Fold these 3 entries.
Entry 1:
Amino acid sequence: MPERPLSSAARSASRAGTGSRPASAALHPATELVLLVCALVLTYGVPSPLVPVALLVIAAGAAARSPRVRFRRWFATLAVLSVPMLVMVGIIQGLFYPGDDVEVLWSWGAAAVTVEGLSVAAQLWLRVTAMIAVCALFAFGSDSARTFDGMIRLRLPLGIAYVCATALSLIPLLRDQVSRALVARAARGWNTGRLSTRLRLMPGIIAGLLTASLVQLDQRHDTLEQRGFGRSARPAELQDHPDGSAQRLLRWGAPIATVLVVSAALTGVLPVPTASEILGVLRD
């Protein structure tokens, strides 16, 4: 049977598919999961604000260069979640840090700015902000299929991979359904442009959507079981992801390097400045 010549659009798509990939798209989802866990361990394992600052810079650069992540959306999420945390720890730790043996920088009544309070507030806020940054980068740059494939490649139990992938797929689904529900309420005469009206409508909308989502999950699970889900110890991946010896080496080397760095920092072999030491240098 003679082969049919490809059209110009098909040839362009073929060349685009076989061409060079962006660096962020060249990572296997299993590698992304390993790097995410290593970043979180470094953030909370090394007692220095330099680590979360470095992770924030890396996450910002990756979000700006990633073809799957919109930088404005990533930055807006980071700001919405981290700014209230900054205000809270700034007031609680920065102004009302407990203890008598503290170095007071400024005081007014019961409120006092101390070096110890500022160091604790800075360390806590930077850690939480770095955690939000790397988790938002992974969530916006991945989907349920990529998450499932990554967990399968890491040999995680099939049930855990299914639950995590399904939970990740529910986030955009619920967001779209909430938007549609608000549009439907607006068509019925509700002034959904007002915040007070949205707050009144949200409990009923979310309750109905959660109930429908649970029913859909149960139906999806029954359908997958009928099609043999879980009968294979290592099911095939849903998508074709680039993988090679370099990435396999990275998946092994990154956790080992993370454990070594955290152990060296905690035992004093790797001297890292704490938040109070950095504040002392800045004061001088």
Entry 2:
Amino acid sequence: MAKNQKGHAKKEQVKGKAKEAVGRTVGNERMTAEGKGEQAKGDARQAKEKTKDVFKH
């Protein structure tokens, strides 16, 4: 389960970066903001998984 969650976090980060880049390129502020939000969500999920790993060992 943990690998699945880590993978999902990484996908969110990558998807967010791509969306942010496209938003900047086309000048769409909303898309840029959504991309940043997805990156933050992925970062938070990844931090949560790292914290869980610390307490497992």
Entry 3:
Amino acid sequence: MRTKSTAAWAVAVLMFGAAVGGCGEQSGKGPSGSSAKHTKSQREPEDKPDSRVVEGDDDHTVLELSDGRQVSLRFTRRGLEAQHRDASDDAWSARKTVYETGTKPCGGIRAKAYRDTVWLAAGFGVYCRDGEEPQEVIAAVATGDLSSWTTDPTKNNMVWPKTRIRDGGARVDFVHRSMLMTTTLTWRKGSGFAKVVTKHKPIHPWFVGRWRATDGSQQLTIHQVEPGRWARVVIESLTGPRCKGSAIVTGTDQHNLTIRNPKLDQGTRTVNCPPEELEYFFDVKSSDGPLRLRTIGEHPKTVLTYERAG
């Protein structure tokens, strides 16, 4: 089934390189208890792109740098090609292959520059222009005389709607932000592209800690996000057959946690150890609780209630 994602790619084209304000990352290790608060890391200084697009459509774009040089980027049957020329020269350089692929391009090439650092992102997919997600998204950077390009080798399908330029053009961050995580691909002058880094959004500190069911059947320990990992809940039975389970937990606010990928780690699976994905969620109303396991649906029902135990 084809998805309607061409609009999303088009929005990304418009957003690429836009200034990002108020986007400091939350701390990867949040405290627990009633006095806990979300914290934000200090933002690193950024350089503002100083280029402008002088020509462009779905298949090509021409970028003018601050020194007057121009860069032409064009989709071809072989993939993506680039040319450049000096401000005082009408002749374009020979075409340089930035990325070679037989897959059809998506609509638009996103490109910006700061001083002599030029960066771009482009997508490719068999039915991308018909509404499907891109199968390949490439990021590339050229500097200096613009005769060569460094390309992200991962061939991922992550749409890069924002970029951040730092250190006078020596560092470019390609950023994809969602409700639950921020994914960053970094290029540095001299070393090229690094591995993609994903930072998961911390859950609200109200949830973090140990909880005991009021009926004495089990206890939960909810762990905050660690670098590069999701927050997790560990469930242990206190009565009946031995059961220890775990699951990923994610949340977009301070009141609800979604349960994902539950699994049995030890013993025998019992009722709500672990809770089934897409059937239950956790909620809490304050830092002191209570924490509740509730059914998902139009009329949620409380299955278990927990009190804070540490």
